Amino acid sequence: AQSVAQPEDQVNVAEGNPLTVKCTYSVSGNPYLFWYVQYPNRGLQFLLKYITGDNLVKGSYGFEAEFNKSQTSFHLKKPSALVSDSALYFCAVRDDSGGSYIPTFGRGTSLIVHP
Amino acid sequence: DSGVTQTPKHLITATGQRVTLRCSPRSGDLSVYWYQQSLDQGLQFLIQYYNGEERAKGNILERFSAQQFPDLHSELNLSSLELGDSALYFCASSVRGVGANVLTFGAGSRLTVL
Description:
Helix content of chain B: under 10%
Number of strands of chain B: 11
Order of helices and strands of chain A: EEEEEEEEEEEE
Distance between the termini of chain B: 30 Å
Oligomer: heterodimer
Number of strands of chain A: 12
Shape of chain B: globular
Largest sheet of chain B: 7 strands, mixed
Number of helices of chain B: 0
Strand content of chain A: over 45%
Structural class of chain B: mainly beta
Helix content of chain A: under 10%
């Protein structure tokens, strides 16, 4: 079975400060990991994914995520937050060991960047 | 514009009624996924189709059904609607139905059941 947890419902950060949105996962095999962002009244948009290789993945809009196998985490980061980054962020996981090919999404974390 | 088109954008109906939500996938994508997003349940996978065939089923109620047509558009049918069915329904598409495919989401159909 595969599952993903986003332990924070909301993250507040000041503009210009670094931000981190946390995600932990559980899979039987190896994980495919994804981050998506949802702006108000919009569908989810893909930010980045990890399949294999470098633990640090770079994505859209200056976001990056660090894969940590020992801690089963895939935290989303950005060195300097913008007010326009305020949105709902979803982590998703898919187990590569077969079974379901459908990614499981976390409940989402609301990021609020204050001017 | 993501390339995934969902209609209608908003729908208000009464309990006991039936509605149909429509989705046109991004050009070239063969796989369609339906998700339900609500405040208490988060983003829940309902059902997936690949090239016209049902590929995977999630937490889809028996009152709900879906299909994918030869032109690859998909419809989600919701019947005997209840207040708790009020939610945002997303369609997503991907090139294939397996692997580490990125999903491209539509803007959603917001259903309100009164």
